[in-house]
């Protein structure tokens, strides 16, 4: 049986597939047309966020049995199309939780202390100590939208920094939140109280442009916003307007609605805008975890007929 790998995973995972007797075809950077051709004869496909498995691509598969995501988000897979064809879809969410949470904290520090801007200024030969006055995190209120795996690790680390943590998550009970030291609040209360807001929800119909002009209007003056979850959860033009009028003092995005964003994207021109190219899970540790997990899951399914998520 053949497994097509269309986004890079570490060699440790490829080894597991090969040792189990599976043929592995590694083909990254495929165009949609090339992907349709390559998927035709595959029994399994392993992807990260770069590969878009649309209904059209999935329809082109003639013997595909499993779609496996080396990571968490499944927003790049048309789940209905996979379901129609009886294709099993699996992910391995735990492996990059800590890395995504740590990246969120890095973004929070970068925003609070203007680290990227100050470094750019110093490297350009300037010494601008007054311009880059920062803010402390201790005592500030962090608002977490989505208190799942990543959101709860962020909460734990923020409590260690002596921040107050409030969260909005309709699927978490106040008791569960309070055990984590977090106060569960409504979305409007979170907007009203948070000095810093961070997003950790999946991208779905319900969360598309969850953060929009109306939400910015309800936030505190000078709020900081972080999105290390998924592009599309924040309306980027509304964010641009909110930064221009000073409502949002700084924003950090690891993810964009279109990746990579166009080079003339207005946010990229803003000085108080910090960004990274979807690096939340890009650590050696997380990539090793997900490569091992995804490969083992695919072998378990294709070779042993066992379905499980890590
Ligand atoms: P998770 O499923 O453990 O947590 C998501 C939480 O969001 C759940 O608790 C759920 O109840 C909550 N939720 C769902 N809908 C909501 C809504 N409308 N409002 C508020 N909360 C809602 O997922 P996770 O492992 O914490 O990952 C979260 C997301 O982070 C993933 O879906 C993925 O898109 C993204 N992610 C990004 C990176 C990166 O590289 N930047 C890495 C890993 C994950
Ligand atoms: C994820 O959802 O796990 C992230 O997008 C990480 C990634 O695959 O880069």
Bound molecules: nicotinamide-adenine-dinucleotide, D-malate
User: In angstroms, what is the radius of gyration?
Assistant: 21 Å
Gap between N and C termini: 22 Å
State the shape: globular
The proportion of strand residues reads 15-25%
The pLDDT mean sits at: 98
Q: Give the uncertain stretches in residue-range form.
A: none
The assigned structural class equals: alpha/beta
Q: How many helices in DSSP terms? A: 12
* Order of helix and strand elements from N to C terminus: EHEHEHEHEHHEHEHEHEHEHEEH
Share of helix among residues? 25-40%
Number of strands: 12
What is the fold's blueprint, element by element?
Elements: E1 2-5, H1 11-19, E2 23-26, H2 32-39, E3 44-47, H3 55-60, E4 66-69, H4 79-84, E5 88-91, H5 97-113, H6 115-123, E6 141-145, H7 149-160, E7 164-168, H8 174-179, E8 183-184, H9 187-193, E9 196-199, H10 213-218, E10 223-227, H11 236-244, E11 248-253, E12 273-275, H12 284-304
Parallel strand pairs: 1-2, 1-3, 3-4, 4-5, 6-7, 6-9, 7-8, 9-10, 10-11, 11-12
The chain binds nicotinamide-adenine-dinucleotide (NAD) and D-malate (MLT).
Nicotinamide-adenine-dinucleotide binds next to helix 5 and helix 7.
Structural commentary:
With 310 residues, the protein is of the alpha/beta class. Helices cover 37% and strands 16% of the residues. It contains 12 helices and 12 strands. Strands 8-7-6-9-10-11-12 form a 7-stranded parallel beta sheet, with helices on both faces. A 5-stranded parallel beta sheet has the order 2-1-3-4-5. The longest helix is centred in the last third of the chain and has 21 residues, at 284-304. The protein is globular, with a radius of gyration of 21 Å. It binds nicotinamide-adenine-dinucleotide and D-malate (MLT). D-malate binds at residues 48-49, 71-73, 96, 278, 280-281.
